[in-house]
Amino acid sequence: MNNNFADRLQERIDEMNNPTCLGLDPMLSYLPESLLQKYDCRQEEGIYLALNSFCSDLILAVADIIPAIKPQMAYFEQYGLGGLSALQSIINLAKDQGMLVILDGKRNDISSTAAAYSRAYLSASEPNDHDLNTPQASIAEQGSEKSNSAEHENCKPNNPEQYAQDQTSRKPDNSGQSSQEQTKAFLAADALTVNGYLGSDGIEPFLEHCRTHGKGIFALCRTSNPSAGDLQDLELTDGRLVYEAMADLIAAWGEDLIGTSGISSVGAVVGATWPEQAAALRRRMPRSFFLIPGFGAQGGTADDAVAGFDRSGRAGIVNASRSLMLAWKKHGPNHNAFAAACRREAIAMRDSLRAALAAHRKD
């Protein structure tokens, strides 16, 4: 297997002719009523089952046409162990389906803490090592702890025995294994989003795992949120804007991680809502992979999204979350068809990006 993340991602995109990433930012309120009626989301195991069922069905619906997923950690963390259990399960499922996993955590800190983050999310992934330290088993052992969230009150009871039996069957024998080996199991992704605004010492630990384990990172550069300019547009004494200085750092960080594709495993997060800036940033970072959020629900169009791709129409992947997850609300009230609706929307997104890229290559 190619040990360069950028090569693997670009190869998968080329195979599918689709630079799309399925963003998974689940809220219980996003789930169809059919799932909320089936599982008791006042309990940790019910949260796990509901989120895992929803996200797993979405993954299976698009795994043959979308090369990667981007789970947003905060949306799972807010539901405690049930949410983290679901996140771990869907990461494993996506990998089993041949999809790459870009974990969206925007992590960073001082160098020692950044190293801990890097070990947690970018450690080597050995076959079946995701079965170590499964939080699902811990939840089953704890019983049915209640949640205080008002959002859970309308959920109806499920079968806790089914959950416990399922998770117990997954519980591994960790005897004789060191804590360092067990750490490899926790949410091991192919790439992680990071915040580079603490400087190089907080990025180097992530770069080390990119080098040794074939992982990737996407550093925040020009984000898609409306107030991004409050800081990122400030002018420095040398005349560069803050986000331009960050782009120059990202390009430098990735110089020794350029694969045979000519693209670096150190990428940049560049929002689709800023197409002019994205085009300028591409000139500053000609070899960086762009992770492009902001498509769909945030207002970015296909033409906006491809502005940051290179001249050959590569080195970019466009994320869509709500527009795919909530496609069932657009395509009709049949709650049980939410995965099929996601697939229809994903095909429409793919086709719009293909058309936009065809025009982009001619320019």
Describe this structure in words.
- The protein is an alpha/beta fold.
- The chain has a single domain, classed as TIM Barrel (Alpha-Beta Barrel).
- The chain has helices at residues 5-16, 33-38, 44-62, 73-77, 80-96, 111-122, 135-142, 160-170, 179-183, 204-213, 229-232, 242-253, 275-284, 302-305, 322-325, 327-331, 338-362, and strands at residues 20-24, 68-71, 100-107, 191-194, 216-222, 264-270, 288-292, 316-320.
- An 8-stranded parallel β-barrel has the order 1-2-3-4-5-6-7-8, surrounded by 7 helices.
- The longest helix is centred in the last third of the chain and has 25 residues, at 338-362.
- It is globular and about 60 Å long.
- The two termini are 35 Å apart.
- Mean pLDDT is 85; it is low at 127-158 and 167-183.
